[in-house]
Description:
The chain has 384 residues and is α+β, with helices and mostly antiparallel strands. It contains 13 helices and ten strands. 48% of the residues lie in helices and 15% in strands.
Amino acid sequence: MSASNGVEGPDTATAEAAEPLTRSMPAPKKRRVPAPPADIDREMIRKLEIELLGAERTLRRRDVAAGAGVSLLSARKLWRAMGFPNIGDEDVAFTEKDKVALTTIIELVRNEQLTEDAAISITRAVGQMTDRMVVWQIEALVEEMVVQRGITDAAARRSLVTELPHLIEPLEKTLVYAWRRQLNAGVQRLALRAESGLQASAEGRVGDEDDAPLPLARAVGFADLVSYTSLSRQMNERTLAQLVQRFENICAEIISVGGGRLVKTIGDEVLYIAESPEAGAEISLALAKAFTEDDLLPSARVSMVWGRILSRLGDIYGPTVNLASRLTSLAEPGTVLIDASTAATLRDNERFVLMPHKARTVRGFGEVHPVTLARGTGTGLILD
């Protein structure tokens, strides 16, 4: 990325059952809640920007690129990956902190710790994840104000601007803490491979682990709320938001307790993975049970397939993912459906009961032999 080679362009089944975070803690001092401002103070916004950016905007984009010793084209490529809007040549839009950040990324390439493509991919991951996180946090805070204070959405957003300075430091500390914990979890997954899972993934094929066409052996699962579309038509905006949040909270807690990873949620559907077929089975059964017993949410169809996947850009790809998605639509409400190959990896485990069905034709896969997965011995995941 030098100037010469720049190129352009976790744990309960329901939120209500959760133990309050403040339990066993001394009662916090009551803080006076200010009335929502009638108008947003522009000077206050300016001060908040300086606090967030770390300095006043004094630099143009060429100043930042030159300070980092990189071409403007390379700098723009990284800024686009981060999700920044286009900035004109004469716009004073950057600070010294921007120059430091750009230099940090560039040094990773210069020191050959990362290739240019890897640096851009990692930068894009940071930009996309933090953008989604900020939107999520703002909406959660606004919703809290609306419910707790009985004010309008617009008033809550104005109030949040005035109260945000008190939240910046704790939110930043929480972000860094969570990132370090998640990175450590990723390291542990790299170091401690699920031996039973690797053996299961090797069944029926010749060769060793290094010649696998897709690199990761994982349990891939989907959970899909039944009748979500018809229900959503009958709800107002706030009720629908509460339903979606409850669904995501339950999924996130169960998947976390089961040692899996929530890949993404898409409205009424969640995609998750686990390191072994046994872990995937336990998570899937717990999800089906939780939604069947929930008084507010409809039941869910759940599927799980053990196989190989490709992980890229925070998402997962491959036939295993596609098959799990197809099986979800075949599952009965409140049940877990797996394929015959996945069932074979679980057949000797007393914790699970397997009930085969007649063959079904599945788009893109031809004839598939689905199997209903049910609870055998044991209690399953403990959600305390």
